Amino acid sequence: MKDLDCIVIGGGAAGLMCAATAGQRGKSVAVLDHANKVGKKILMSGGGRCNFTNYFVEPANYLSQNPHFCKSALSRYTQYDFIELVSRYNLEYHEKTLGQLFCDHKAKDILNILLAECELGGVEITTQCSIEKVEQLTGDTDYRFKLHTTMGAYRCKSLVVASGGLSIPTMGATGFGYDLAKQFGLRITAREASLVPFTFKGELLTLAQSLAGVALPVVISCNNQSFKEAMLFTHKGISGPAVLQISNYWYSGNNIEINFLPDIDLAEQIAQWQSEKSKSELTTLLSRLMPKRFVVAWLAAEHAKACGANSIANKNIADLSRSDIEIIAKLFHAWQCMPAGTEGYKTAEVTRGGVNTDDVSSKTFEAKKVPGLYFIGEVLDVTGWLGGFNFQWAWASGYCAAQHV
Ligand code: FDA
């Protein structure tokens, strides 16, 4: 039997940050992970360069049933605190776009920093360790929990659940944290794959497949939220940063709206071409603004036929009537569709939903009704936007919980 101040289940971003911080506060800490190595999602993140935080972190970048829950931790451990940590290790990094900070070299640099911090805190890390049972201890003991694992039994005063969400099961994701929360009477909100590409079916799927590989900047909107980023057609539907971002706000059965020309007023542009006495066809001129392959396919698609846009495509620009222009402007500025679904957990970056934040303290991350039991990181019902926000939540929640374990 091993006795410790704190056991952290899950050696991902949140778990390693929490373990290192608690260890450096003088606590005896062990991280138990069932995977063959820790930090796998860090290694695969940001295309191998880990988008480890963002210059512009705000509570508004997070979704949760309780939007106030994330505020305290995000203000107590900020993006600048994490930047200060990585700067101590001389990490070379750059801002890619929209405040997103990436490693210049590889994501492993971030994992190495966390492992070095764990070593400074004397943290013991055990991989390939499956938790078979968690028992709450009562009576005359300092220890609140007993863990039965494939690596033997442990007792601890504080138990931190940092087992993450359900995305990418092949990387070790499990529903362990939700099951443990239920075991101790905490509530779980509905969970869904998020930051995930959309799938189409029928004619829309055929259209997307014919355009697979075409990327363009768009504004995408759903449920009163909009993002201006790049979008990509795929063999299954649509993807790219804009699509992943809006997937956080999308529920099955919702329409999404896409503006394919976010920086141009197409009606004004057509009026301009008409005033210049252009003799070109609409398709030719639109191909100056968007990839020609997209313009041609879009104007020939079923949705274009339904509104009569296909018959306008080959008209000379001078012959376009006011109603023609309205039809074309709507087709490119406010195209609506209903995705059939998402690609699911096998490609999703995160899980939306999780352990109900009403059952957890936003200051300590301790379960309100179970002294000594903590939940941090993605297992909680806190989901960030794409762009380094989810790691910042892992760092912040891990750091703050570590002050109390
Ligand atoms: P995380 O998933 O990191 O760790 C959970 C740990 O628990 C894992 O080590 C797992 O093996 C372990 N575990 C699970 N079940 C267990 C069990 N039953 N017993 C023991 N251990 C168990 N975010 C971001 O901000 N910037 C980015 O660039 C990216 N990029 C990115 C790419 C891809 C492909 C994905 C899938 C995700 C991202 N993310 C991201 C999201 C980010 O990776 C994610 O939000 C954090 O890793 C969450 O950190 P956690 O520590 O909560 O869970």
TrEMBL record:
It comes from the Bacteria. SUPFAM superfamilies: FAD/NAD(P)-binding domain (SSF51905), HI0933 insert domain-like (SSF160996). The keyword Flavoprotein applies. Residues 193-350 form the RsdA/BaiN/AoA(So)-like insert domain. Its cofactor is FAD. Residues 5-403 form the RsdA/BaiN/AoA(So)-like Rossmann fold-like domain. Coiled coil: none annotated. Pfam families: HI0933_like, HI0933_like_1st. InterPro entries: BaiN-like (IPR004792), BaiN-like_dom_sf (IPR023166), FAD/NAD-bd_sf (IPR036188), RsdA/BaiN/AoA(So)-like_dom (IPR055178), RsdA/BaiN/AoA(So)_Rossmann (IPR057661). Keywords: FAD, Flavoprotein. NCBIfam families: aminoacetone oxidase family FAD-binding enzyme (TIGR00275). This is HI0933-like protein.
